[in-house]
Amino acid sequence: MVLLATISTQAQVKPQELTLKDAINYALENKADAKKAKLSVENSEYQIQEVRARALPTISASGNTTYNPILQLNALPGDFFGAPGTTILAPLGQKWVSSAGVNLNQAIFDMSVFTGLKAARSTREFYQVNAQLTEEQVIERVANNYYQVYVQRQQLAIIDSTYRNTTKVRDIIKGQFDNGLARKIDLDRMNVNLSNINTQRQQLINAVQLQENALKFYMGMPIETPITLPETEFTVTPIALNDSPDTTIRSEYQVLKKQEQLLFYQKKSIIAEYYPSLSLTAGYNYIGQGSQLPLFAKPSDGVYWSDYSSIGVNLKVPIFNGFGTRSRVRQATIDLKNIEEDLKDTKLSLDLAFENAKTQINNSIITIDNQRENAKLAQEVLDNTQNNYQNGLATLTDLLDAENSYIEAQNNYTSALLDFKLAEIQLIKSKGELRTLTN
């Protein structure tokens, strides 16, 4: 009973209607790639805090207790003990020593710290641009799969309509055959044709399901969620093709620019090793010594406590390290030259993508116009052939050919629409306007 109730509940789930905007916004909120990109931006704030900590003082507390079961004997002149001309072996120190203290270290001048702070801020900007690029990639994948689902559903609708019409014609032929007015071969040919159409239909049903699952995956939606697409979503709209976009504002290009900036700061941080560094240190300590454990002991117990402190300034001046720093600086210079070439190549690639998208758009519009007229003509031919066949003016072969031509023409038209929509996405992407699909 529980199983039956579960199946009944699932069967009653109303499909969720998805426009392209809904699908994209859902993906931006739920897809793992988009979430991880946002987490990387958040993580960059902590990286900045980590670098900033290098410019702040560090304070640490320490403590230890040492037991010396055998004290070291030191050779001392006997003069100290009233025995001139002799050497006395005397133990120095105490059996127990305990100490506790607080130490402070503050960088006063360290060029690598200042460079690191600038690099950290650039790292945050890099992750922000990279998150934008990731979102655009999510939008592109969702839009492509969305339109593929739509086209396959349109093809399925065509097959369904053809299957219904062919079934009616088959039933008419069967009636004629039963009354001795049609040949058995005609009925058999219609049954074979109907079986072939049904096979195509089952293949399309499977293809639609697979494509819908892919769409849900790219959206981050549970695969078992039923969805439906509105009929009005798939339209051909005019697109401005005259203005060439500034490809340097594209996210792909900006990510490389931020990487170039990070490599520049990396080189600066290596050069900073040539600079001297200056730091301040200070410490305050308390030490207890005696013949027994000093903790909680007093002078009356033979344990004596005293404090001491120190303040110092440390100056480090690099002089020579075997040209290691120079080699690393030159490596960083090569990295910068490499990314300069990447920037040139990326800009060329983005310009190419825009021109190709324009060409595909123009070709798709021409193809759509031709296939629309062809599909309309194929529909008229099929209607006339069906009418003529029923009136004995056309052969069964003519009817079957007309049906196949109609299916092919309709599929060609929907394929042309898909090509246009995919090219439209690429054109919007090449103009850096993929985010407009969320509005």
TrEMBL record:
Protein's UniProt name: TolC family protein
Database matches in SUPFAM superfamilies: Outer membrane efflux proteins (OEP)
Keyword Membrane attributed: yes
The family this protein is said to belong to: Belongs to the outer membrane factor (OMF) (TC 1.B.17) family.
Taxonomy, superkingdom: Bacteria
Protein keywords: Cell outer membrane, Coiled coil, Membrane, Transmembrane, Transmembrane beta strand, Transport
Coiled coil start-end: 329-388
Compartment(s) of residence: Cell outer membrane
Pfam families the record matches: OEP
InterPro entries xref list: OMP_efflux (IPR003423), TolC-like (IPR051906)
Lineage, uppermost ranks: Bacteria, Pseudomonadati, Bacteroidota, Flavobacteriia, Flavobacteriales
Entry keyword annotation includes Membrane: yes
